[in-house]
Write a structure and sequence with these properties.
440 residues; alpha/beta; Rossmann fold; Dihydrodipicolinate Reductase, domain 2; Alpha-Beta Plaits; 11-stranded mixed sheet; 16 helices; 19 strands; 26% strand; elongated
């Protein structure tokens, strides 16, 4: 990189790209003072210049915006490539090309890193450059920097994150206003918090991408997106939201990664969880994100803020650019062994061997002996009950019964549920939801 200036090229000019461009242009003088050299946005590649909003085009100096790929890649003086076009197709090709050409990369693309991160980090190292990716997880929250550098003295035992603002908004509307899932989703789409096709968000896939990246950093292992089991909120019943409130819990879609012993197995999963209302993370509402990280020395830490949006995400992108421009980040990237290309493959704890407390709900015929049969099946699998709740009903009718358990092995619970569902007095399937106990 030049001692006088650092040149920036960017691919994509959507919501986040527009925010990045605005910050780089309007705050150029401030950023130059902070890193000791000019930070210059020199070229932006888009699919079609005509589709870029006029308000975003007006921000840019003449000649910066182009839809000519050859002109972009032949532009002189580009030291850092910002990738904000998304996806794992074209984005992968462009990022790989930039790294091979000796350019640093800054990306907000969690899907790309969750799938190809091991390869791309190794490629960056081989070519003497680095990858900044703070914006890939948690939007504007500096949780990646915290794990990379701020918590380096710790052995991390657990992470518990609300990492998708769409889902958190929907769940907030369901828990605080009693809306159904479909009504809350429709409102989220109207307000721009949810995509027209919200599948990746509401099924937990987006959170799984982020958790793979964060778990890799936290535990020093290689975790890919296909190793993160995920279950979303799209099947959540308002009944369970109401029962949660009666029991003193809120419901959050959590990405959870845990390593109980140093060097031991790692469990990674995404699912709706009951979180006690006294937990700080239970109070995170609307489209906001939060991550709790537990270290053996520091204890419980928490990071909160906007998980998406034009300027929160752009803030993280530009911060990575400045860290690279200052020189220290590239040096750290080259010398330290905290990125996934230097890690061993993860040893996963099987789903059956994961342990937690659980909430169960089933519709049972209101006749004598049903609860006794259920408790017997649970007891035979060494599952202890912490509470049972049943509303008054007419004898002989089906009524919902709620059971909460003490700590139990998932495989044992699944076996007991199979027996419970086979009872003639039980109608339909048993609903199970994890109760998340976040270490203090």
């Amino acid at each position: 990189m030049s001692a006088e200036a650092i040149g920036i090229g960017m691919i994509g000019m959507g919501t986040v790209g527009g925010g990045v461009a605005e910050l780089l242009v309007k705050e150029a003088a401030t950023y130059g003072k902070r890193v000791g050299k000019a930070v210059e946005l020199r070229k932006i590649l888009v699919l079609d210049v005509a589709e870029v909003p006029e308000k975003d085009q007006a921000i840019l100096p003449n000649g910066v915006l182009t839809d000519d790929g050859e002109a972009f890649w032949n532009a002189e003086g580009i030291d850092v490539l910002i990738e904000v076009c998304g996806g794992t197709g074209v984005a992968y090709t462009f990022v790989k090309k930039a790294l091979e050409a000796g350019k640093h990369v800054v990306t907000a693309n969690k899907a790309l890193l969750a799938k190809h991160g091991i390869e791309l980090f190794g490629l960056a190292r081989a070519n003497g450059v680095s990858i900044g990716f703070e914006a890939s997880c948690g939007g504007g929250i500096p949780c990646i920097t915290a794990m990379q550098f701020g918590l380096m003295a710790n052995q991390i035992s657990g992470m518990y994150g609300i990492l998708n603002g769409t889902c958190n908004y929907i769940l907030t509307e369901m828990t605080q206003k009693g809306k159904t899932y479909s009504d809350a989703l429709a409102e989220a789409q109207e307000l721009g918090y949810a995509e027209a096709d919200p599948t990746l968000d509401v099924t937990g896939g987006d959170t799984a991408h982020k958790l793979a990246i964060m778990a890799s950093l936290a535990f020093g292992v290689q975790v890919t997106d296909d190793q993160v089991a995920h279950h979303g909120i799209d099947g959540l019943d308002l009944k369970d939201v109401q029962f949660a409130a009666e029991l003193g819990y809120d419901i959050k879609l959590l990405g959870i990664a845990e390593q109980k012993e140093m060097g031991g197995g790692v469990s990674v999963s995404v699912q709706p969880c009951f979180v006690h209302v006294d937990e700080i993370i239970a109070s995170v509402s609307g489209p906001m994100n939060a991550v709790s990280i537990v270290g053996h020395a520091v204890g419980h830490t928490m990071y909160y803020g906007a998980g998406a949006g034009r300027f929160p995400t752009a803030s993280a992108v530009v911060s990575d650019v400045m860290n690279i421009a200052s020189g220290w980040y590239g040096d750290a990237f080259a010398k330290m062994n905290i990125w996934t290309d230097k890690h061993e493959p993860v040893k996963l704890v099987s789903k059956e061997d994961q342990r937690s407390r659980f909430y169960l709900r089933f519709d049972a015929l209101d006749v004598p002996g049903v609860i006794a049969k259920v408790t017997t099946y649970l007891g035979e699998k060494d599952i202890s009950i912490s509470a049972v709740m049943q509303h008054e009903s007419d004898e002989g009718e089906f009524t919902p019964i709620v059971v909460t358990t003490h700590d139990a092995r998932q495989g044992d619970l699944d076996a007991a549920i199979k027996q419970i569902e086979a009872l003639s007095e039980i109608d339909g399937n048993v609903v199970q939801i994890r109760i998340a106990d976040i270490p203090k």
